[in-house]
Amino acid sequence: MQVKEDKRIVRSDFDRIYREDWWPLSFLSLNDYDVNITYSVFLECLKWRKSFNIHNISLLELRSLFMKKAMYLHGEDLQGRRILWINLKQIEATERNFTKLLIYWLERNATETCGAPLQFLFDMSGSGLQNLEVEAVKFALHACKYYFPGCMGGLLVYECPPIFDALCKLVLSWIDIRAHCRLRRITRDTVTKYVSPENLPFHMGGKVWYFFPIFCNSSTDKIFEIGWISKDIF
């Protein structure tokens, strides 16, 4: 699959195609190794990356969401997949930076792990309609399929309120039928079937007591690390 240089593509992405084989191969796998379809899908992704300005997402702009623990990577599930935690209660339906934060974490995982699949864990405890924007959910599913193929290894929905039952059915209609088996609705009683207590927050019956992002200083757009304290140390 030969991609030609194009002003609609960021130069670093163009160079990456030939430097990181796993990247174009993930798109080939998504499209059953049909080169013509893959080329079209991959090209649209490359153009989207430039229009979304993916290489220049400012973490300062997302700082409030980080501080609220709205979305973060931490730990692994029982199959060894990194977990992307999405704390819906901390995200307002009108929050415009939700999509930027999602793309930040998907891109970070892709570059750090060569596109290894994630376990998505939606913590819906205490959430309501004020925390959910349907178009944002559609964007997230679209991005996972067409911009970061293979990134969704599983989808756990924790303590889903009955008010969202219709939405869960709608989500199933949006995702590939082959991915339906990856969606699991879980509770505090069943979550340990998928994630060990060592990687679960305290309110889920786990041992992770406190989360805090560590910024270099007030003017930086970098995060040094994400810190965790286990309740075992108290």
UniProtKB/TrEMBL annotation:
One of its GO terms (cellular component) is endoplasmic reticulum-endosome membrane contact site. Residues 61-212 form the CRAL-TRIO domain. It comes from the Eukaryota. This is CRAL-TRIO domain-containing protein. It comes from Enterobius vermicularis (Human pinworm).
